[in-house]
Specification:
The chain is α+β, with helices and mostly antiparallel strands. It has 12 helices and 19 strands. It folds into 3 domains: 106 residues, NE0471 N-terminal domain-like (2-Layer Sandwich), CATH 3.30.2020; 302 residues, Double-stranded beta-helix, CATH 3.60.130; 33 residues, no CATH class. Bound molecules: fe (ii) ion (FE2). One of its GO terms (biological process) is carnitine biosynthetic process.
Length: 463
């Protein structure tokens, strides 16, 4: 059906509209789960009537679910005398229709104000280079521990910059663990849950040595790499042979900025690293052999699904197209990708490279360009961790490393799952920021309401 929303037109399938009825008998208002039986909807369903009201689009659907004994009885609220016993009334708010339109996606058409940076990384992200050293994002320990508004402020900084310091943290493992748990549960891995270690190679990983580590993300070998990581340097003392403590500076690199630079300067290389899958592993502990679910691995640059791009080039064809593209012309236009959502990169963890012959050289060429950008001093932010100052970063965006060091360092910290971090941020944003989702606002409208838990509407973004 063709729907006019303000001055724009949107095409929606009848079956899609019927499937998205959010009345209490089709959609549970508390659990936000579908009650309606999708499979009882006729593929040829047509509305009995359609009416534009102030609240939204009012559609009277024929009652086709009554033959399904497992489906709750529908009672129409329609006043239509002709169809009252055989129909089901559904109301679709205009804002919801616009937000979820797909032919065309109207919510994406007002994009003149979207910057190129936002096109790559999404809104609300500030990409940074070495200059961030002059004003690194930070919050106070007391503020974070005091109330959830402090946690919200902290998570907003992490969301915007990909990292944040927390100052004035008591230099103890207990206080550090408590701090992490202000966000969510600690994610356990084969390294443990909350970890507290020195460079004793207690696990088979270079992190447990005193070697320099280049910029990398952690746990590239997990199907779902760790979301956040927090470090707290508890002490750095002389080594057992008396050598004075030195080195061990921490390195951060904004992977989203590095990706943007790669896309600007070498779009073909960006395509290669966004498409070619890398297999990875963790096998340094005798009792562990981790590799992700997809044995072919994942691209270094992972994007969200973009329906528009997918319509133009189905995902399943991308590898084949890339092969043709790189073999035929290095000047062909790059692919259109969705938003960049994850940088998954640790060259040390890469397994055997298994690619079609034609992609081997393009891959190494692209990897070299990526490495050059990552190791450029303009993108590197070096700083020295000190007891009392925690560093937390988004492991899906910011790469970290360190210089070699002398002496005994005691570090503690932990991972938080990306899903748990985003859940906490979303809820706090809704509670204190007056909006839902990534800046698009709530359909139900909550302007002026800033405090306290708010009821989640069945029309909220993301449901
Ligand atoms: Fe690491």
């Amino acid at each position: 059906m063709l729907i006019q929303i303000s001055s724009e037109y949107d095409l929606s399938h009848n079956i899609w509209l019927r499937d998205h009825c959010r009345c209490p008998s089709c959609y549970h208002p508390k659990t936000k789960q579908r009650l309606l039986n999708t499979f009882a909807i006729s593929p040829k369903i047509r509305p009995i009537s359609v009416e534009a009201t102030n609240e939204g689009l009012q559609i009277l659907w024929p009652l086709e679910h009554s033959s399904d004994p497992s489906h709750p009885e529908h009672s129409s609220s329609s006043s239509s005398s002709e169809s009252a016993h055989d129909s089901h009334a559904a109301l679709y708010p205009w804002k919801w229709l616009r937000m979820n339109s797909y032919a065309p996606p109207l919510h994406q058409t007002h994009s003149e104000s979207i910057t190129y940076q936002e096109e790559i990384a999404g809104p609300g992200k500030t990409l940074w280079g070495s200059g961030i050293a002059a004003h690194p994002p930070s919050v106070g320990y007391e503020e974070v521990m005091k109330d959830d508004r402090g946690v919200w402020n902290w998570l907003e900084k992490i969301s915007q910059y990909g990292f944040s310091f927390v100052d004035n943290v008591p230099p103890t493992p207990e206080a550090t663990e408590e701090l992490i748990r202000r966000i969510a549960f600690i994610r356990e891995t084969h390294y443990g849950g909350f970890w507290d270690f020195t460079s004793d190679l207690s696990h088979g990983d270079t992190a447990y040595t005193d070697l320099a580590l280049g910029a990398h993300t952690d746990t590239t070998y997990f199907t779902d790499p760790a979301g956040l990581q927090l470090f707290h340097l508890l002490s750095h003392e002389a080594s057992t042979d008396g050598a004075a403590p030195s080195g061990g500076a921490s390195l951060l690199v904004d992977g989203f900025l590095a990706a943007k630079v790669l896309k600007d300067v070498h779009p073909e290389a960006y395509d290669v690293l966004s498409t070619v899958r890398i297999s990875t592993h963790s096998a340094g502990d005798e009792n562990t052999f981790v590799s992700p679910l997809l044995k072919a691995g994942y691209p270094i640059l992972q994007h969200d699904f973009d329906p528009a791009a997918a319509a133009a080039a189905p995902i399943s064809d991308l590898d084949a197209q890339l092969q043709t593209h790189t073999a035929s012309s290095s000047h062909a236009p790059p692919h259109s990708h969705g938003k960049l959502v994850m940088v998954r990169y640790n060259n040390d963890d890469r397994s055997v490279l298994s690619l079609p012959e034609s992609l081997v050289e393009p891959f190494y060429s692209a990897l070299n360009k990526w490495h050059s950008i990552l190791t450029s001093s303009e993108g590197e932010y070096w700083q020295q961790l000190t007891p009392g100052r925690c560093l937390i970063f988004d492991n899906h965006r910011v790469l970290h490393g360190r210089s070699a060091f002398v002496g005994q360092r005691r570090l503690c910290g932990g991972y938080v799952s990306g899903d748990d971090y985003r859940s906490r941020l979303e809820v706090l944003k809704k509670r204190y920021g007056g909006s839902v989702g990534s800046g698009s606002g709530s359909v139900s409208g909550r302007v002026g309401e800033k405090e306290g838990p708010l009821p989640r509407s069945v029309w909220d973004e993301g449901l």
